[in-house]
Amino acid sequence: MVPGGKKFNAQLKWGARRPRRGIFDHQDSNGGGGTITNGDTQWMTAGSGLLHIEAPPEQLVMSGGLFHGLQLWVNLPAKDKMMAPRYQDIRSGSVQLLTSPDGGALLRVIAGELDGHDGPGITHTPITMVHATLAPGAEVTLPWREDFNGLAYVMAGRGSVGAERRPVHLGQTAVFGAGGSLTVRADEKQDSHTPDLEVVLLGGRPIREPMAHYGPFVMNTKDELMQAFEDFQKGRLGTVPAVHGMSGEGPGA
């Protein structure tokens, strides 16, 4: 149940000593859904509201395994809150691939624009999302819109950010200050199980609107929030078809 917002799941792949193939199923009440695997992205715009379920497929639950995934919720501006829901299935082969001049960094532009190169993800406010892989010792400085905020989330490895080379490592988020570029550098020595620095770079133009939220509901006012909750309780958000081994009660139910 996700009225009034936008959400995506990204199945992001990087090298490891024992890589295992990750799989994730999604289905929603608007007919969107599918299965994502390494490098894929599911981008769901909830708009006026829908129900959705997501889980690893039954065979992966039974066999076990390890995969890395990243889930991010992005608020919609008030004028778009009640738009029709939409689902985007972004496969790894459709993202824009870029490299640094020395080849030390691989950049995957998932959404938005980076230095004139557009990613496939369609957004309702200007957003840039990049998955970057930096080899040990590599450094990259990327042009960044000055009206955007900017952050870096470290999925694997260790390195530093900014001209001051502030240290960052697995699970940490760095928030950049004002400026027209972002700088990320990978440490010369990485952990034994992580050969490279893996980081998600994300930014966008701030909406700067009031926000009211409760659980998965994100609206602009308390009255809108109460209406969204009522719509959910009265079944106005639809039902989720039972596919991919899942039902409205959850995976494998």
List the helices and strands and how they pair.
Elements lengths: L4 E7 L12 E5 L4 E4 L4 E5 L6 E4 L2 H6 L5 E7 L10 E5 L5 E4 L5 E7 L1 E2 L2 E2 L8 E8 L4 E5 L7 E6 L1 E4 L4 E4 L3 E3 L5 E6 L10 E8 L7 E3 L2 E3 L2 H12 L12 E2 L2 E2 L2
Antiparallel strand pairs: 1-4, 1-6, 2-3, 2-5, 4-7, 8-9, 9-12, 10-11, 12-19, 13-18, 14-17, 14-19, 15-16, 15-18, 20-21, 22-23
Q: Could you characterize what this model shows?
A:
The two termini are 18 Å apart. A hairpin with a 2-residue loop joins strand 22 (246-247) and strand 23 (250-251). With 253 residues, the protein is mainly β. The protein is globular, with a radius of gyration of 19 Å. It has two domains: 1-91, Jelly Rolls (Sandwich); 95-204, Jelly Rolls. It is 7% helix and 42% strand. A six-stranded antiparallel beta sheet has the order 8-9-12-19-14-17, with no helix packed on it. The chain has a four-stranded antiparallel beta sheet with strand order 6-1-4-7, with no helix packed on it. The protein has a four-stranded antiparallel beta sheet with strand order 13-18-15-16, with no helix packed on it.
